[in-house]
């Protein structure tokens, strides 16, 4: 009787479509949790609707839940092995997770399915670059440019091409793995250290200062002020090294010339952490940790930040030498992602 009075109830297929539409609207409005909830309900009604998994995976990706994004995209691919969007979402999550080979494989599949998909070439180029395959990165950026004549990312892609060609894209793959580079051990003079320290202490224009294995001084580009730092990240920085202390911080990371010039962030994956310390007022100097310069570099330091995977290449008594030389014996071991407190350990 009710059906006759109020009309036919909507079918499961109609309900699923409606829930997906609501999920899309919620996502576009910035309400990611609501969007995920709508996609959950759509999947409950029809567990074989691939677009719901793709959209939910993309929502999880935007929340930073990369493992769930990969899981959802994989489910969508099981439903439809020719889903370009699913490979795109999974590739993005793998790229963000630093699973570069998997990201390359997913973008390659998307390109196979749609050879004129410019975004896939650009993202695969980023994965190639991160994986040290500079020539392939340049080739993909060059393939991307004519396919995306109006894409705002074109200027960035051209900058990548120029940068990678300048830094040896044609000289073979780059090894970003941790290791101790050869150094000019006699060139680490007190005068050079004084210059580096003075540069690191310029608070009006914060920079990360790098002492290279060849014992030259390089700096990062000028860094923006602390007001530009995301609040959660700022809170983490303050918890580790309160800005009121104005510390001298020494970082030990992989600064081999070709790798660091090709991609500083891939050579020292926690570079953002070091930039953050400089942005909140600390004087930060990065070097490779060679035994010939360790004692000199540790003098008057209040904290050392060391790449956990560089430790096997340091002298066996490095920690004892560092703590006996520093002004304050704060030593922080950081994993190669290094962006959360869970990735750090006080030694």
Describe the fold and architecture.
The chain has helices spanning 2-6, 12-28, 32-45, 50-63, 66-79, 84-96, 100-113, 118-130, 134-147, 154-166, 190-200, 231-240, 257-262, 264-267, 271-279, 291-298, 318-325, and strands at residues 209-211, 217-219, 248-252, 283-287, 303-307, 330-334, 344-346. The protein contains 17 helices and seven strands. A hairpin with a 5-residue loop joins strand 1 (209-211) and strand 2 (217-219). A seven-stranded mixed beta sheet has the order 2-1-4-3-5-6-7, sandwiched between helices. The protein folds into two domains: 2-171, Serine Threonine Protein Phosphatase 5, Tetratricopeptide repeat; 185-346, Rossmann fold (3-Layer(aba) Sandwich). It is elongated. The chain has 347 residues and is α/β, with parallel strands linked by helices. The termini are far apart.
Give the tags.
about 350 residues, Serine Threonine Protein Phosphatase 5, Tetratricopeptide repeat, 7 strands, Rossmann fold, alpha/beta, elongated, 17 helices
- What portion of the residues fall into strands of 2 or more residues? 5-15%
Specify the CATH class of the largest domain: Mainly Alpha
- The share of residues in helices is 40-55%
CATH architecture assignment of the largest domain: Alpha Horseshoe
What class do helices, strands and sheet pairing give?
Answer: alpha/beta
| CATH homolog superfamily of the largest domain | Tetratricopeptide repeat domain
Please state the average pLDDT score. Answer: 90
Give a quick rundown of the structure.
With 347 residues, this protein is α/β, with parallel strands linked by helices. It has helices spanning 2-6, 12-28, 32-45, 50-63, 66-79, 84-96, 100-113, 118-130, 134-147, 154-166, 190-200, 231-240, 257-262, 264-267, 271-279, 291-298, 318-325, and strands at 209-211, 217-219, 248-252, 283-287, 303-307, 330-334, 344-346. The protein folds into two domains: 2-171, Tetratricopeptide repeat domain (Serine Threonine Protein Phosphatase 5, Tetratricopeptide repeat), CATH 1.25.40.10; 185-346, Rossmann fold, CATH 3.40.50.
């Amino acid at each position: 009787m009710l059906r006759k009075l109020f009309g036919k109830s909507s079918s499961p297929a109609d309900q699923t479509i409606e829930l997906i539409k609501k999920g899309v609207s919620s996502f576009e409005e910035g309400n990611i949790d609501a969007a995920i909830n709508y996609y959950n309900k759509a999947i409950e009604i029809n567990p074989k609707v691939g677009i719901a998994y793709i959209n939910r995976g993309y929502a999880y990706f935007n929340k930073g839940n990369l493992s769930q994004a990969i899981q959802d995209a994989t489910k969508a691919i099981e439903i439809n092995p020719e889903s370009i969007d699913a490979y795109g979402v999974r590739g993005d999550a793998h790229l963000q997770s630093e699973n570069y080979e998997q990201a390359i494989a997913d973008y390659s599949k998307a390109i196979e399915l749609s050879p004129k998909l410019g975004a896939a070439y650009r993202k695969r180029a980023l994965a190639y670059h991160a994986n040290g395959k500079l020539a392939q990165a340049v080739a993909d950026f060059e393939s991307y440019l004519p396919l995306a004549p109006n894409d705002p990312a074109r200027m960035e892609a051209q900058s990548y091409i120029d940068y990678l060609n300048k830094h040896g894209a044609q000289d073979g793959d780059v090894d970003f793995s941790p290791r101790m580079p050869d150094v000019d051990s006699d060139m680490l003079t007190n005068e050079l250290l004084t210059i580096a320290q003075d540069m690191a202490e310029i608070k009006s224009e914060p920079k990360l200062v790098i002492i290279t294995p060849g014992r030259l001084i390089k700096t990062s580009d000028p860094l923006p002020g602390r007001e530009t730092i995301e609040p959660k990240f700022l809170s983490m920085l303050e918890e580790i090294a309160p800005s009121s202390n104005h510390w001298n911080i020494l970082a030990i990371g992989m600064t081999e010339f070709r790798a660091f010039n090709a991609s500083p962030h891939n050579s020292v994956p926690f570079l953002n952490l070091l930039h953050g310390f400089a942005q909140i007022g600390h004087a930060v100097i990065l070097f490779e940790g060679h035994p010939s310069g360790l004692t000199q570099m540790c003098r008057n330091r209040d904290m050392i930040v060391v790449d956990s995977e560089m430790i096997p290449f340091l002298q066996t008594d490095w920690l004892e030498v560092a703590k006996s030389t520093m002004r304050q014996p704060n030593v922080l071991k950081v994993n190669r992602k290094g962006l959360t407190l869970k990735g750090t350990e006080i030694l």
